[in-house]
Amino acid sequence: MSLPIFPPGFLWGASASAFQTEGAVDADGKGPSGWDAFAALPGRIKDGTDTTLGTGFHARYREDVALLAGLGADAFRFSVSWPRVVPGGSGAVNADGLDFYDRLVDELCAHGITPAPTLYHWDTPLPLEEAGGWLDRDTAHRFAEYAGIVAERLADRVPMWITINEPAEVTLLGYALGEHAPGRTLLFDALPAAHHQLLAHGLAVRALRAAGADNIGAAFSHAPVWTAGDSDEDRFGAELYDTLTNWLFADPVLTGRYPDENLAALMPGPVADDLKVISTPLDWYGINYYNPTLVGAPRPEALETFSGFTMPAELPFGIREIEGYEKTGFGWPVVPEGLTEIVTTLHTRYGDRLPPLYVTENGCALA
Question: In this structure, how many other beta carbons lie within 10 angstroms of the beta carbon of residue 120?
Answer without folding.
Answer: 28
